[in-house]
Amino acid sequence: AYDVLVVGGGPSGASAAIYAARKGIRTGLVAERFGGQIMDTVGIENFVSVKYTEGPKLAASLEEHVKEYGVDIMPSQRAKRLAKNDLVEVELENGAVLKSKTVILSTGARWRNIGVPGEEEFKNKGVAYCPHCDGPLFEGKRVAVIGGGNSGVEAAIDLAGIVKHVTVIEFGSELKADSVLQERLYGLPNVTVVKNAQTKEITGTDTVNGITYVDRDSLEVHHVELEGVFVQIGLVPNTDWLKDSLDLTRMGEIVTDKHGATSLPGVFAAGDCTDSAYKQIIISMGSGATAALGAFDYMIRN
Ligand code: FAD
Fold first, then answer.
1. Where are the transmembrane segments (predicted)?
2. In the beta sheet, which residues pair with residue 165?
3. What is the per-residue pLDDT across 47-79, written as a single tens digit (0 to 9) for each?
């Protein structure tokens, strides 16, 4: 059995594994895809102390660092069930059951896609998901934000301070964001809000040059010329397999305390799969360290 078993090999899982292994305890890491979301990221400019890096490069350094400590890495394995008896048990899709005194869940999240032509083609070529990450790339340009919930409207307010113009595209007849955010949004001079609009296509040549939507009342087709599209229709935590094992929020995020502990004793969680307020590389690495120290504290008391 392991002392600490980390499920997930993104920034939070790698950080948790390093912090655990440095305590000299038996540490395993099982991950479907080592690196996680950063494998889909081109430029990273907000990983503090590194002015610019690229996702796959950061993932390779993470792996090298984890391997430095003799962590038992089980790549290309997906966990499907979590249970607790004397030890915590993690069952993999291949049928194997791993046992550990403590488990750190760091299975991350994924952005919900809008699923229209052009989205996949122009990813990282004008189509973006994270305003904190990619907003500055669109300085002085025109962008659209798809989605009028809290994250969409927050993104629009944030982007309006950087870009030339923001068009918010909401499918429903009303924005769903909190009213204080809506008031703030409507007070901005360089924002247009389009409601009742179904996005049909993101257009471009090498990079994005516009967005096409249909007015759901009149069925008229509109095209807006712009250089960027931020898709803000939700970040989905990879926690489906956990819903019968521990407490999740309404959004499916794992509820954690300040030690990274979940509602199941001995099970900790870190990164984008948790109810942390913000989802970023540096934040997930910090919470991975917290969860590992939390797990170590738990172990020496039990
Ligand atoms: P993830 O990176 O999602 O890793 C999850 C890990 O768990 C993966 O290894 C996955 O394979 C594994 N996993 C999932 N389910 C299972 C399972 N059932 N069994 C086993 N393994 C499983 N943040 C920044 O700070 N700066 C940026 O510039 C930036 N740009 C981004 C650009 C894009 C396109 C995207 C998608 C995200 C970006 N982010 C950026 C956000 C950042 O990538 C995430 O906050 C960070 O990766 C979260 O780390 P994590 O370890 O919590 O989860």
1. none
2. 142
3. 999 999 999 999 999 999 999 999 999 999 999
Render the burial of 92-121: b for 16+ CB within 10 Å, e for the rest. beeeeebebbbbbbbbbbebeebebebbee
Nearest residue by C-alpha to atom 15 in ligand 1: 107
Quote the CA–CA distance of 260 and 269 in Å, as a whole number: 5
Does the beta carbon of 232 lie inside 6 Å of ligand 1? Answer: no
User: Do β-strands 221-225 and 208-215 pair in parallel, antiparallel, or remain unpaired?
Assistant: antiparallel
Q: Is 69 in the pocket of ligand 1 (CB under 6 A)?
A: no
Quick check: CB of 230 below 6 Å from ligand 1?
Answer: no
Q: Which of 168, 161, 156, 163 is nearest to 142 (CA)?
A: 163
| pTM exceeds 0.80 for this model | yes
CA of 22 to the centre of ligand 1 (A): 23
Q: Are strands 165-169 and 142-146 parallel, antiparallel or unpaired?
A: parallel
Q: What is the dihedral of CA 259, 264, 268, 274, to 10 degrees?
A: -90
Distance of CA 199 to the CA centre of its chain: 23
Encoded amino acid at 278, one letter? Y
Q: How far apart are the C-alpha atoms of 83 and 302, rounded to whole Å?
A: 18
**CA 32–ligand 1 middle distance (angstroms):** 12
Q: Could you tell me if 9 and 75 are in contact, meaning their C-beta atoms sit under 8 angstroms apart?
A: yes
* ipTM value > 0.85: yes
d(CA 266, CA 73): 21
Tokens for 14, please give them.
């790698």
Residue 43 alpha carbon, nearest atom of ligand 1: 28
Q: What are the residues facing 211 on neighbouring strands?
A: 202, 224
Burial 175-184 (b: 16+ CB within 10 A, else e): bebeeebbeb
Phi, psi of 55 (to 5 degrees): -50, -55
